[in-house]
Amino acid sequence: MRYNFDFASLQEYWPEFLRGALMTLEMTVIACVLGLVIGVFCAIGRRGKRKWLATLCGAYVEIVRNTPYLIQIFFIFFGLASAGLKLPIFAAAVLTMVFNVGAYTAEIVRAGMDTIHPGQIEAAEALGLSTPQIYWDVILRPSLERVYPSLSGQFVLMMLSSSVTSQISAEELTGVANSVQSESFRSFETFIVVAVLYFAMAMLLKFAFHLFGQAIFPRRRRLGTPL
Amino acid sequence: MRIKKLLAATATAVAALWLAAAPVAHADQLDDIMKAKKIRIAVAMGIPLFAFVDKEVKATGSDVETARLIAKDMGVELELVEITNAARVPTIQTRKADLLIATLAITPERKKVVDFTIPYATLDIIVAGTEGNAIKGYDDLNGKKIGLTRATVNDSMVTKGAKGAEVVRFEDDATLITAAVSGQLDVVSTQTAVLAAMNEKRPQSPLKVKFVQQELNLGIALPQGEDRLKEWVNTWIKTNFQNGKMNAIFATFHDRDLPQDLLTRQ
Predict the structure, then answer these.
(1) Where in the sequence is the signal peptide annotated (chain B) (predicted)?
(2) Does B223 reside within a domain?
(3) What is the pLDDT of residues B209-250, one digit of tens each?
(4) CA gap B253, B150 in Å, rounded
(5) Residues B119 and B223 placed together within one structural domain of the fold
(6) Yes or no, beta carbons of B168 and A169 under 8 Å apart
(7) Which residues are paired to B218 by β-bridges?
(8) Would you say residue B17 lies in a domain?
(9) Contacts of A168 in chain B (CB under 8 A)
(10) Residue B206: inside a domain, yes or no?
């Protein structure tokens, strides 16, 4: 079986690949920002004193982390429509990503919060800091700095799993690839191109997270050591 | 140093893959099938009436039964290769199957990369929508959301014909049906059998045929250059069309007969 590689025939599809890659990045950025917000609140809720809230947050995390992403996508996409709520495809795809990445983020953030020594929190209470102050300055900021590498890893992973949303017709990079290969009949080449694009995007994201981390964690920037 | 080692290991792995895929003196596919006493026939599951899973979770449909009859007449064992729509042409290109019987329409573009037998069945592809949608042709689709299955003739015709439409592509007919049934879609481009399956599950507002896009001639696809295998299947189609066996299978599932002039079509 001989295979003649022909990348030239893919040249005309370049704008489509680019459009797909941009959509993947767009979806990832929105999902990560919203997912982080949900994750932080969910972690706080899980650690808090209100039993029902802790149970609720715990249930959300366990359900998302123990079911396949594809099933969650179908459930949300078809479930919402059956319930009469019709979202545009892009919004539906991003919603499934937020729902998914929120739970993983919650666990990572919670793990970070658990590393804060109780003595530090007691000290803050003794100094008369308010609860929001304690959460922001004593717990959240150092713990986010500590778990920042795993958080950025999780977000890169989310970018890669977003390929699954092509199943509900989101025209992101994998969706575009499937269309291109069915039109050009150059499936091997198409998927090589897409793999390279995903790799480049993952590297780009990693670099962006690195820069962002340097910007928001001055301690790390100045000392260059992990907390 | 470590990077160098890693690179070397990767290079070796790639080279090994290359060799594995390298030309083994290629024998004739028909001989290979006879020698192995097994034929691999690819079908795209989840297409109502053509290839689907029945109540006993058994694969059936006119495509699947045609595959069974071919294997039986060849006197070999049948291995059904179940694939998705978008994988139909690549499956044959990469020889993951000997034959493909999967509602694949004979088109000039596909003929460049795979070989086709003479037609074995036909299919009407249509645009359908709910009562409120006034659609008479491709122009009326502009600005509308239209659902279809990726890598089908519907896909290329709608993409070319209705540039202003928002085309929503699903990976297989089963997902397209679910999208229509759950209410995600009001307008679809598909084939009559799929439409019937949709309407069965949404009796409250059925989708009506708005216009027929084309009548397609479906062919059995096989890798290029397998002329003896192609000749065998062509003869089989002629024989079984004339003795009525093929029509019997088709009519069982589709409630209509194959067109009289099927064999003369290209």
Answers:
(1) 1-27
(2) yes
(3) 999 999 999 999 999 999 999 999 999 999 999 999 999 999
(4) 24
(5) yes
(6) yes
(7) B105, B121
(8) no
(9) 170, 175, 179
(10) yes
